[in-house]
Amino acid sequence: MTWFWIGLCLAVLAVCLGLWVLGSPWAAARGEARTRAPAFWWPWVLALAPWCAPFVTWRMRRDLRRWGPRAGLAAHWQADRWLAACVLAAGCGVALAGAGALMGAASARIGIPAVLAGAALGFAWPDQALRRRAALRRGRMMRELPFMLDLLTLCVEAGLSLPAALHQVAGHAPEGPLRQSLRDAAALERTGMDRPRWLQHWADHADVPGVLNLVTALSQSDRLGMSLGPLLRAQAERQRSERFLRAEKLALEAPVRMLFPMVLCIFPCTFLVIGFPVAAKLLDAGF
């Protein structure tokens, strides 16, 4: 009976210690977690960031500077915090792979590679998710660009100057990643940066060919003194035709993409429905 109470006390102590270890990062970072990143895993990222800071390489910083603005990543995601998120995802992958190996009663020869694979996949998942988000955001920007060019053309033809038209578009265009990127770039003008530089900054961080063509055309018009109305209207028509061509290309690719699920899912069911009565009659006939 004595050993029972000793074991029970040790179990309660272990539970309290585990709750303290898991809850202390949340208690330490509750203010920043509520105001900046309300996700439940953010305090643990903050707790791991100081430990991960010495292992941050220049390549990680360069990749985060490159893909972070393109994916619309918030400014509080620094390199050490991003590495901490990767380590946290790797820990989750280890936990899931280890739990699967234990539930399946796998041997050490299978369980150890499974745990290592889970750690590698978990560590690489945030980077892949970041690039995927950047690609989706880029596609949405390409869809929004023709309408924004039409709005910019309307503002210029109404008599506004190019800086005033850009600020009107940044303030009153439909909400989306393209408007947000233009608004962030236009905010650099209030810091003293001249217009060609923040327009080039917008083109670099948007990573959209149409935005780069627009910035190049605006720079050439400033140097040559060209009229902006016809230039912007031509850019809008070009982007609209390119959007139509991209949609046509995706429509032509749809049958090829549908071929794999048809072969894998629909054709076997069809053959089963057609062939089962025939096979049953053949078996009844003695074949």
From TrEMBL:
Entry's localization field: Cell membrane
Segments crossing the lipid bilayer: 41-61, 82-102, 108-126, 147-166, 258-280
Chief location category: membrane
Sequence ranges assigned to domain Type II secretion system protein GspF in this UniProt record: 149-274
Lineage: Bacteria, Pseudomonadati, Pseudomonadota, Betaproteobacteria, Burkholderiales
Membrane topology annotation: Multi-pass membrane protein
UniProt keyword Protease present: no
Keyword Transmembrane helix on entry: yes
Protein name (record): Type II secretion system F family protein
Source species, domain of life: Bacteria
Protein's organism: Castellaniella hirudinis
Keyword line: Cell membrane, Membrane, Transmembrane, Transmembrane helix
